[in-house]
Amino acid sequence: MVLNNIENLLVKYENAETTLQEEAQLKAYFASDNVAPHLEHYRSLFQYFANTQNESYTKDVPLKTNRRSMYQWISVAAVTILMLGIMIPKVFGPTEQDIKDQELALATYNKTMEAFNLVSLGMNKGKDQLKTLALVSESIEDGRASASRLNEFNKATNKIFKN
């Protein structure tokens, strides 16, 4: 009965479903001398847990606080830069001359765009005229092809009537 109970607890232990009391039963069973032969490989696992529970780290760990002060100074510098970035444009904002220059640049830009639009309209009209010219050219080519066929017809009829 005890062996069945231990095997059931091992299954629960492997599925991570045991309570602390059940794990204590397992530790006590594998610490004893009467462990079933087919469960012997679990003994080393539970002995390892028992041995490492008694271990402690006694070496002093030095703490370095220089990094902390460096991070504090970096954060102070970041906040200072952020505040200057917000305040300087408000204090040293654009002057009247800057505003006049911007208005002049905007007016020049608008006039340039109007000139480009006029040039574009003229080019579109010229493009339409070129399309018409291309149609006339195609018509002339078609006429020339028809005329060459007529010339061949004339040669054929001349041969027929001369014979």
Q: What is the secondary structure topology, with strand pairs?
A:
Elements: H1 2-14, H2 20-31, H3 40-54, H4 66-91, H5 96-162
Helix pairs in contact: 1-2, 2-3
Commentary on this structure:
The protein folds into 3 domains: 2-54, no CATH class; 65-93; 95-163. 82% of the residues lie in helices and 0% in strands. It is built from 5 helices and no strands. It has helices spanning 2-14, 20-31, 40-54, 66-91, 96-162. It is elongated and about 135 Å long. The chain crosses the membrane at residues 70-92.
Distance between the termini: 131 Å
Radius of gyration, whole Å: 50 Å
> What structural class do you assign from the helix and strand content?
mainly alpha
- DSSP strand (E) fraction? under 5%
The ordered H/E elements are: HHHHH
Number of domains: 3
Low-confidence stretches: none
Short description:
With 163 residues, this protein is mostly helical. It has helices at residues 2-14, 20-31, 40-54, 66-91, 96-162. The chain is elongated and about 135 Å long.
